[in-house]
Amino acid sequence: RQMCIRDRYQRRVHGDIRQMRNGIWIFCILICASSLSFVHAENPFTVDKSSVQKGEYKWTMKLNNNKAVEDEMTSNKDIKTAAVIIESLDESVLHLKITDANEQRWEAPIVNPNSGKNYKPALMTKMGFTYDDAPFGFKIVDPNSDEVVVEMSAAKSSTLMFTDKLLEIGLWYSSQRVYGLGERTTADFELCSERDSCIYNLWGRDAACPYDDGSGGCKGAYGQQPFYMVHLTKTFQFIGILSLNSNNQDALVAKLPGGATMLGHKMIGGIFDFYFFYPSTADGVMKKYHELIGRPYMPPYWSLGFHLCRYGWRTLDKVKEVAAKMEEADIPLEVMWADIDYMKDYADFTVDPVRFKGLGDFVQELHQKKMKWVPIIDAGLKYNKEDKYFIMGETNKAFIKSAGTKKTLIG
Q: Are strands 272-280 and 307-308 parallel, antiparallel or unpaired?
């Protein structure tokens, strides 16, 4: 559907809208059926030279879209003027942000209070960053090796599309060894190592699949971690890239001739917000990355042990049976979990009095064995106006509100 919307835009720019409507759905079916290929659009953005300001550590400019249109069929519209910020956060960290110059858009925050505390910015002229005016593009060259490590330009057929409901940018990398994005892997951990092109979907909706291999069969697994590293073939170092966008998004990976990769970021909202971590060891890149977003919390010691959990254990007897068999087989087990099966009608803070009668006694038995028990609790409460927890949440205005009705979101 996103590709279909995109094609509607291109045809409005280059053709008659009436002709487009007659053939739109046939053309969309052809485009969407080939979901593993890129659909390149003309980059309509040019730099407004009068807006360029170059400070020692930060450059700003505006981009004009002279082909901006609004599509009444999709209520979508092109961004007419984009604001660009390029800043040196550290001698090895560059921040690039592209947003709407006229209207505020959602920006995913970095909540780390010590973010970049140990960073030492370098002069922008030392960061190896250059840009093109028409169409807008940019290039980052490793200051230590003169290797072009990332490029977005017409020369590389890069995409740059910025509309209200669909954003896409194509980034060219000099290597095909790409790792990351979390829960998306192959046998050798390299993204898309088993085919020429892949689509990885980043939208944490708890899809019932182990991981996303890029084939399109698993979309929306548990995590949304839009960070990846590229292993450079010239210096054998790594670069890191964070795409700070919390919207539903696809990462489209295409292996190019000559050992390069085009990685397309396609998002349905927000802004372009990239952090580039310059060539270093994998460990060095990760340290800089965690200095930005924050370091993981130190987990309790017991949580590092062996855990067991499964959705579908519908009774306490079944849970007991599994725990007993683990003990009989002498398989280590420190933590026993219970999925939402233990709840009464899947309502938070409840225990089914029939199927899980005696749960408290079982938990005490686990504790006597120096084991832990963890109940899974859903983020959403069951909608019941007579439920005390629902009433408590309404009274304290704890629930998410609908953007349309301004009332508690029921869904």
A: unpaired
